[in-house]
Amino acid sequence: MADDRRPHLVVFTGSGISAESGIQTFRAGDGLWAEHPIEEVATPEAWRRDPARVLQFYNLRREQVRRARPNAAHKAFAALEQQGFRVSIITQNIDDLHERAGSRSVLHLHGEILKARSTVDARMQYPLPRGGIALGDICDKGSQLRPDVVWFGEAVPHFPDACEIVGEADLLLVVGTSLAVMPAASLLELTPRDAPSVLVDPEAEALAPPGVTRISLPAGKGVPALVRHWQREGRLWVPQTLVG
Ligand code: APR
């Protein structure tokens, strides 16, 4: 909406926002990548070498996502939107917890685990076969189906859309990401000059780039606290009582 004058909150989330819903993050000592090395389950080479292993990894993760429920942070964004704020969510997460909480504008930078796609043509998407994707499930061109997720070494097709959204932010709120993965992390450099950026993450002190305000709290505490301030005042701002 080009003439939309409502305050525009752009939210950029990582796996930390879903941690309190029971979904594992990636880079912690007990994170997903420690248990399942990236090069064995999340690269095009891994897929070529051992597709059964890759499919099994994503089928198990899909079950974890289905069991999870949106937490207070996901719900707070949906409530803010309900109240009339313009809220655009860009997520690195492949789960659907933002949508299930009720958020309507969600861009999945790294794809969606609840969708399948053709191996030869990313635009050919399919509903998930019952029980997950199996070897032998094929697209209309006869090639194997794969999870509709972006693997390491692959292009990020929605990145230009994300850049455009961040460029229209009144405030950029980053939640639960170590900012270790490019190009996603570079979105923080694209905010308009007068728009503040805030990171909510227990490790915010160590992770926030210069110029980004740090709120060192878990998402389930930090996000609802911020959103309550915004709902009360009808504007986006950074309450100093939460900073640090
Ligand atoms: N609330 C908020 N943040 C939390 C919480 C919590 N309750 N618990 C942990 N975190 C934070 C950690 O401090 C860490 O900064 O979540 C972050 C998780 O970081 P990573 O494991 O690196 O995950 P993420 O940043 O989402 O990874 C980005 O990398 O592996 C790829 O494609 C994958 O989308 C993923 C991308």
Automatic annotation (TrEMBL):
Residues that coordinate or bind substrate: 58, 61
Limits of the Deacetylase sirtuin-type domain: 1-233
Keyword Magnesium appears in the UniProt entry: no
Binding site for NAD(+): 92-95, 176-178, 219
Principal localisation: cytoplasm
EC number: 2.3.1.286
Catalytic activity: N(6)-acetyl-L-lysyl-[protein] + NAD(+) + H2O = 2''-O-acetyl-ADP-D-ribose + nicotinamide + L-lysyl-[protein]; N(6)-succinyl-L-lysyl-[protein] + NAD(+) + H2O = 2''-O-succinyl-ADP-D-ribose + nicotinamide + L-lysyl-[protein]
Swiss-Prot/TrEMBL keywords: Cytoplasm, NAD, Transferase
Domain of life: Bacteria
Active-site residues annotated for this sequence: 110 (proton acceptor)
Signal peptide: none
Keyword Protein biosynthesis annotated: no
Pfam families in alphabetical order: SIR2
Location(s), subcellular: Cytoplasm
PANTHER family reported in the protein's UniProt record: NAD-DEPENDENT PROTEIN DEACYLASE, NAD-DEPENDENT PROTEIN DEACYLASE SIRTUIN-5, MITOCHONDRIAL-RELATED
Domain notes: 2 residues (Tyr-58 and Arg-61) present in a large hydrophobic pocket are probably involved in substrate specificity. They are important for desuccinylation activity, but dispensable for deacetylation activity.
Family classification: Belongs to the sirtuin family. Class III subfamily.
Its job: NAD-dependent lysine deacetylase and desuccinylase that specifically removes acetyl and succinyl groups on target proteins. Modulates the activities of several proteins which are inactive in their acylated form.
Name of the molecule in the record: NAD-dependent protein deacylase
Organism: Billgrantia bachuensis
Name of the gene this protein is made from: cobB
